[in-house]
Amino acid sequence: xxxxxxxxxxxxxxVSVTLGSLLKLVVLLAALFWLAxxxxxxTISRVLRRTDLDLGTRQAVGAVVRYLVLLVGVAIILQNAGxxxxxxxxxxxxVSVGVGFGLQNVVSNFVSGVIIMLExxxxxxxxxxLSDIEGEVREIGARRTTVVTNDxxxxxxxxxxxxxxxxxxxxxxxxxVRLRLPVGAAPERDPDEVRRVLLDAAAQxxxxxxxxxxxxxxxxxxxxxxxxxxxxxxxxxxxxxxxxTSELNQRIDALLRRA
Length: 259
Description:
With 259 residues, this protein is an alpha+beta fold. The protein folds into three domains: 2-87, no CATH class; 127-169, SH3 type barrels; 177-258, Alpha-Beta Plaits. Helix content is 49%, strand content 21%. The chain has helices spanning 2-5, 19-47, 55-80, 89-119, 159-164, 191-204, 241-258; strands at 8-12, 15-18, 127-130, 133-140, 144-149, 154-158, 168-169, 177-185, 215-217, 226-234. Strands 6-5-4-3-7 form a five-stranded antiparallel beta sheet. Strands 8-10-9 form a three-stranded antiparallel beta sheet, covered by helices on one side. Strands 1-2 form a two-stranded antiparallel sheet. Helix 2 (19-47) runs antiparallel to helix 3 (55-80) and helix 6 (191-204) crosses helix 7 (241-258). It is elongated. The termini are far apart. The model has no long low-confidence stretch (mean pLDDT 78).
């Protein structure tokens, strides 16, 4: 049995790799990944929890700590296995060839994830709008970010999209945001009456902030209809834009019919 474990599989950088040493290496790497995850959870839930950092910052720091543990751990394991890290240039060359032939997106998403964690243009708990995706950021990983939509569907978005595309972060300023609602009315309507109805609808609608106050604009004087724009302010952390838009439309329609 001992002879089977000592069977040489191949030689790397002058070091004989046997079945036993390869199995030992796999076990050590698996233990390292478990240890890195445990250190990350410990950092977030125990160490950083005592600070004033928000959840997104704690998770970003925890992820960086995990990568550092993995980097140092892999170097120590390979060095103890007798592999000269300086002599592994051929492996790095093979990896670079693989990157050139198909791993560009993987590397780009990884680098983008590091940029997101350091610069923090978005963080866990933010409500973002990216093309046709709108939802809450639940997790920022090394290669992808998990966004949970209003339908409670988790979408895994590659990190690269948050760097190269236009991203709307509704909670970056930490204050109210404005909602613009176009409204059309029949040409025979009294514009002052329509304006009063729109302001009444905004005042009666839960979720619309009193300060800054709602306002009614006339964006155009196109013939055939009266065009208005109701602007209201709301807190994106407590009010969904789609729900607020729908409820305001229903309230405006009911008040205009009643008037």
